[in-house]
Fold these 2 entries.
Entry 1:
Amino acid sequence: MGAKVYRALPGFRLSLGFALMYMSLLVLIPLAGCVIKASSMTWDDFWITVTDEHAVAAYKLSFSVALIAGLINAVFGLLAAWVLVRYDFPGRKLLDGLVDLPLALPTAVAGLTFRTLFISDGWYGKYLGFLEPEGSVGHWFGPHGWFGRNVATLDVRAHDGPFAIVLVLVFVGIPFVIRSLQPVLAEFEAELEEAAAILGASRWQTFRHVILPALLPAWLTGFALAYARGLGEYGSVIFVASNIPGETQIPPLIIVKQLQQFKYEQAAAIAIVLLFFSLLTLLFINLLERWSRRYDPAR
Amino acid sequence: MFRSILTAGVLTILGSVVGCSPKTSEHELLNVSYDPTRELYAAINPAFVKDQASKGKQVSVNTVHGGSGAQAGSVINGQKADVVTLALGGDIDAIARTGIINPDWQKRLESNSSPYTSTIVFVVRDGNPKNIRDWDDLVRDDVKVITPDPKTSGGARWNFLAAWGYVTLHKKKGDNEATEFVTRLYQNVLKLDTGARGSTDTFIKGKQGDVFLSWENEAFLVKKLSKEKLQIVYPSVSILAEPPVAVVDRVVDEKKTRALAEAYLQFLYTDAAQEIIAAHGYRPINAEIRKKHAKAEADIPLFTLKDVVGSWDQANERFFADRAIFDQIYRKKGS
């Protein structure tokens, strides 16, 4: 039949070529360079470097704090996006503008600010003494407390521990969730909610069966972005964390340390492991997202 | 639209290529230095420019600062530094291994190519509330220490070596005792910042820790800048830290700046520069100028890197390499 597909914008080949070149120059080639650098070491060296006790502790730390921060952001990001889209109140535009601030602010500044706020005599820190290991709540999570003995010992100090890292990661990650959800919420037709209400759905049922399925893909995307941001974050974390190897040292810091010793291969090796796990988790989130779109007719 | 994007892209690429082409001038020097020397070279550079002007030459000097190891790394990776003025000889050795600097660099200037020296001292809070007098106090259970990470900071390597030397040279104990001593010391460390300036900030602005192990020159600066009153404590013995300088041979030959670069480093040894050095809390190598500025309390016995471990290669291999003694400290803690 030879029906020609008309596109609104001309020049598909040119733009595809440009997109491919751009991606290759800026993303693929640097990544390949990383792999090539690491491949110049022997397998044994590679294995020793990436399975080092401190490196493994750092991966665990990074993936868990990024996950927790991502989850916190998912919850509060949804709330914030909802408020910003659904309600009109004085200062809404201003609040909306503030959302992007964590993206523009150099993260080292964020780290310094958080540290100043949360140290023991800082504005927040002076009221958070109960989170210290000797404080009422901190003790509960410590090795002698109920939670510490029966579940796991947790360091919940609001400064320089893992919890402090979660706090800055929440800060740097929140715009991703809000900005992913806002357009979807804005497009969401109020008629659907009205219809649900007329058909006798409770508020919770409307949310669970009408709103949530529509939001889920964007929500997951926002979560994935915030989570990925948390994995790669360096500037703010090294300011708030105590950077003790095996405890509060993040993988990017190990990379910096390797570079400092002029061990470029080892640095590349750690980077590759990080990349591998990041790809794996992002793939998983993408699959989840696809699953969440299973009823979407526009898929 | 795509044409305009493409044009924009091409222009960006062209722009960055053009922008990258090095501006070479025989009258411009780039000094790549480490973190705490900001104020020092901010004072020395104008003095050198003035000195050259009096000889009828118009020159300019730029200095960039950063962690010593990172700076060495950037020179290895092609930064066009005419001279390097770093925190430790090991970093210049690393550059020399790539052939960018001639292997004999340390013999080319007086006193192992270090126009100034420094040492490691303790900074404590006003009135010295924890009564910290000497290295032994740092391993007490009730003392919290601030020092940067020796893996990322040149200054911190001197700190580590000073503590090690205190046990092996001053107390004349064996390596086992020294390992135990540094282990206890680093278990008292609250926070390992990546550089000397980071630790300064943690101690003053973050108000963390009872004692800050610091370069002597940085300690003077911290004391001057801090709103809170601080005190400097000289331990019974410490290490002679020799931050060396060198001309970057490959770069100066390419840029034809060798004469100027050599004149710049020579200038550091002149009386005028040595006075500036002393005024910034470094120890000038000129004995007379040193005597004029030195305080009696600062006159403590100092051992050298050579006394402690021999050379930087040996120091790195024994203490700071992966899974060497420093790494072991944090492994024992877990088990």
Note: DSSP finds 14 helices and no strands in chain A.
Entry 2:
Amino acid sequence: MSANGAIDARAEMLSGAKSLAVAPPPSRERGVTSDLSIDEALLLHSAGWEPVDLVCGVSVVSVPIGVWNWGQGEITVASVAHNAAVKGASDQLRDECIKVHGHGVVGVRVEVEVRTHHIDVELVGTAVRPIDAKNLPASPFVSDLSARDFTLLKGAGWLPVGLAFGASFAYAPRRSAGDVMKQKTQNIELTNFTEAMYSARETAMERMQRSALDVGGQGVVQVKVTEGPMHFARHAVGFTAWGTAVRLVAESHQFMQPQVILPLNDAVVTFEAQSLRSS
Amino acid sequence: MSDSSLELPEAAVRRLESSAFSSGLTVPDFAACLDLGLQPVGLVQGFCVMRWGWYGAGSGYMRGINPYAPGPQNNGGYAETYRCPHGFVSNEHRMWGQNIEQTWVEEAWSAGYGSAYRRMLDEAVSLGAHGVIGVTDRINPLADTGTTEFHFLGTAVKVEDGPPPAGGPWTTYLAGQRLTKSIEAGFMPVAVVATMASVRVWAYCMTEYLMEGSRGWGGPTSPYEVEQVSKAHMAVRQLARKQVRQQLSGDTLHGARIEVANRELSQGDEVIDCTLRGNRMRRFKDFDDVPPPRPTVRLT
């Protein structure tokens, strides 16, 4: 670092190059793996946390034959299968996190595939812990918030407590033959589909909120939803909702008081190497 | 072409001997590179085309001949056997199944990836480079012939007034601002690392039934976890991470990307391939204190 506190990138590069000029002694240390970017790693560090290991959870749950046939109301078996697959994957992710002494998992990538006879769920994220942490928590949290959002949330006095998930599948009941004939020449709302979608949505949202309460959350942030008819059964609609359950750990919410910035740059693209520590 | 010799193709030698340098860096990355004291010396590449053998019936690359052996090609890799709970024999009934790590596939992948990587390094060495930045690697199937092309590309650089690295040029997927931040944070790139793990699922009767939605004999009537397939998915990811960790020697893997591809062969039978790659970084100084980030709102 130069006298005025600004970073001397060349000197740092030279130090790094010199460190590689000598062969390191053989090490049996367990290397850290993470899918965080360098920005996210630095942000975590500024909040007193560090990445530990890349962790995964996968679950494949079967859906019995005949479940998607015509019917009425919720397709309970499919909803149960979906929630079981999410829970199975989430439990595995949490187990892997415990094994590497992590306190939680951030940046979890959620991939769900609903197929005719099975539902596949994959969760991948990075286990993290406070720097110099000694005690393990009773149960690590699982969160799909990025390290950036995690740091911001923590600064505001909140912490993630778990992944909240809810899913529901419902049949769009058949219209009667009379209705089909009557509506053939009309521009008309298909209330069977609208009602099925409403039903699936309300049930899934309720399940998501209940799962947040189950893990001790006060609310859910960054909720994502997917909805629509199943590609293999157009008469069945599905709705899934998930997000990160959060809880206030400070006495009260900490207002971040962001600084307002008004860029006065010309609309010319220029390059400026920015230091992490410049004021 | 030998794996590690400096016998480069004649055209490559001509190109590398030119007085003009070439680079794959964008203008901002190029500027950041100069700011770091890195001198680009040339665009370096490595190729390797691998043909995958026939792994089907009669190939010798099969599961074991009985439920007690994982197969001759497994080389002590991961293997797990599942036995039929029904207790009867039939031609159409899969009495046992296996999850097997396809070590022969992993070795072939590593050979292709490693050869292309070393060939890129050979070009960098011939230019007297200290490192290669902005590395990209592409792995493309060529036609439908079980043939795969591995292609590496990066910009060879010299560190101004810097000593040559002990173990040959260092490499990284990073360039520009992200590389600058890594160096400032005390992480020096060592190498790009990548591994591929492959697990073949030979379904047994219960897996077959569950994956086609039927209950089978005495099977569950409600949703049920398909244990064999779930375990295969977990195993392939764990193997990839284990293999990468073996390459780290205590260093850190940054910006890891994990990608999984599965090919269904029949009901329950599938091949799951997991690729994991990232930047192996070595800490050369402790983190400086990073000030708490200041939230900002941008008015535009």
Note: The radius of gyration of chain B is 24 Å.
